[in-house]
Design a protein that fits this description.
Elements (H helix, E strand, L loop, with lengths): L3 E6 L3 H12 L5 E7 L3 H10 L7 E2 L2 H5 L6 E4 L6 H10 L3 E5 L6 H14 L3 E4 L6 H12 L5 E11 L16 H4 L3 H4 L2 H10 L5 E7 L10 E8 L2 E9 L4 E7 L2 E7 L10 E8 L2 E5 L10 H21 L8 H20 L3 E2 L7 H5 L17 H4 L7
Helix pairs in contact: 1-10, 4-5, 5-11
Bound molecules: nicotinamide-adenine-dinucleotide (NAD).
């Protein structure tokens, strides 16, 4: 097994609590050799956590990328910064893993994918919820055909906690649409890729209700989305607050339900059980958890480690990772299509045309779309989300 030497860029919360501990717990696959962050406090935290000396800390990530003793660049900055770093890393010949979402704007995601292809390096996105044991177990049941054809997938993440960014950077960047590309839906894009994964066939059309319950906020706090794929559909309901969580899948022969503690939202609420009904028989499906993977931090760290190992395997065996750059782009477009649908009152077809303002500018392109008269008072416009007037 080959050990990958990792250069990590962006020493904020997910790097400090997820990626760096995940690498340190998998020494047979990874060795962190350098970290970069322009903000000194964050860089120092990264160096300490990664057990490196200041010699291997960079204020300029492009200097880190120049190092020749690196096999994998890991990008943990906010999404509006991903493209430039991916392009530089690809040009330097490094494989790349990037935090979700791949970018804030589809055109940036496309350019990043193109740069990796041109350089012949791997580009993977961290879609770590795919590695949660209950998600793996549910997908195995679907793939076995026990539930028949998948007809409806419902992902409820209505009790999401509004997380602050690192204190040494900009704690509120998730509420700045130019940096984040959107609010709770963009942050919890996990729900979109999970629904897509369970549907198992490409999404063709997206519609949504999107609004904000926080006076003066530029981004949404609630998104209720419908992804249509032929005769199947997924409902993805995501909101900051205290709502319900859980996953339901309905097939032509049965159904399954994933419950989290007190009907809460994963991963803040721990997994409780998975109930499978086929015909008139109902059972509680056993799901195997790693020891100590039930607290939110353990679950995130553990799932990120699984995603990183999947990427290391993809590099070693020259195969596709579970979440390629292309999948990252696909789910990013579904997310933006949800915003556009809520703003315009229309269903949006995906993939987006590359000439669409939504593809080119992300949420900032919504103002350039056609609005039906009925959508003039949509909550997205009423609350002036994403810079709309
Ligand atoms: N997969 C998951 O479960 C998960 C969870 C949380 C966050 N994320 C993703 O991880 C990314 C970072 O989120 P976070 O919560 O760690 O944010 P954060 O604000 O805590 O950290 C961001 C870090 O990036 C650094 N940074 C800013 N500009 C930089 C630059 N030009 N070069 C290098 N570093 C720079 C900041 O100093 C800060 O340390 C986001 O894309 C987010 O969506 C994923």
């Amino acid at each position: 097994m080959r050990k990958l030497r990792v250069g990590l860029i962006g020493c904020g919360n997910i790097a400090l609590n997820g990626h760096i501990p995940a690498y340190l717990e998998t020494p047979e696959r990874f060795e962190i050799v350098a970290v970069a962050d322009p903000f000194e406090t964050q860089r120092e935290l990264g160096l300490v956590k990664a057990r490196l000396t200041p010699r291997d800390g960079y204020s300029d990530p492009l200097e880190l990328i120049k190092r020749s003793d690196i096999d994998l660049i890991d990008i943990c900055t906010p999404q509006h910064l991903h493209r430039e770093l991916i392009e530089a890393a690809a040009e330097a010949g490094h494989n790349i893993v990037c935090e979700k979402p791949l970018a804030a704007v589809p055109a940036d995601a496309s350019a990043a994918i193109h740069a990796a292809k041109k350089a012949g390096v791997k580009l993977a996105v961290i879609h770590n919820y795919l590695f949660f044991p209950e998600v793996v177990a549910a997908k195995r049941i679907l793939d076995s055909g026990e539930l028949g054809d998948v007809r409806v997938v419902t992902v409820n993440f209505l009790g999401v906690v509004d997380s602050m960014g690192a204190s040494g950077f900009k704690p509120k960047w998730r509420h700045d649409y130019a940096s984040s590309g959107g609010g709770v839906l963009m942050d919890m894009i996990h729900g979109v890729y999970l629904a897509n994964h369970f549907l198992g066939s490409p999404t063709q059309r997206v519609s949504a209700h999107v609004t904000s319950h926080t006076q003066g906020d530029e981004v949404e706090s609630l998104a209720l989305c419908r992804l249509e794929s032929g005769d199947s559909a997924a409902l993805v309901n995501i909101g900051w607050g205290y709502g319900h969580g859980g996953i339901d899948i309905v097939g032509s022969k049965g159904r399954l339900r994933v419950n989290y503690e007190n009907f809460g939202t994963c991963p803040w609420s721990a997994f409780e059980n998975m109930v499978v009904t086929v015909g008139s028989d109902t059972r509680v499906e056993p799901v195997n958890f790693e020891p100590n993977s039930e607290s939110i931090h353990d679950k995130i760290r553990w799932s990120i480690a699984a995603a990183l190992v999947d990427i290391a395997d993809a590099i070693e065996h020259e195969k596709l990772s579970v979440a390629s750059g292309e999948i990252g782009l696909e789910v990013l477009e579904m997310t933006l299509a949800s915003y556009a649908s809520a703003a315009t009152g229309q269903s949006i077809t995906v993939p987006l045309e590359t000439s669409s303002p939504l593809h080119i500018k992300g949420v900032s392109g919504i103002k350039d779309l056609d609005f039906t008269s009925s959508a003039k008072d949509s909550p997205v416009r009423k609350h002036k989300l994403f810079g709309l007037n």
